[in-house]
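Suppose a colleague, Dr. K., hands you the sequence of a protein chain of 67 amino acids and asks what its three-dimensional shape might be. Before reaching for any lab equipment, you can write down a predicted structure in token form. Begin with the sequence itself:
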Amino acid sequence: MTVHTTTVSEMSTWGNAYHMTQSNFFTSRVIDVWNYLNDDIVKSPSISVFKKRLSGVKFDRFLTVTD
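The predicted structure, expressed as tokens, is then:
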């Protein structure tokens, strides 16, 4: 049986990797877009009205590619 011991440097690397994945996680990005929408879009009376209002929104600012 092999026992793996974790060093402090490995733990800090894990923390950085975890933080990087959390900042780019899907729900985080979706929340940013949802919060960007106007109240009249969010509170649409039906899904068809929501889609129609949503089609007029420019999402350019959320489609940037980072290295």
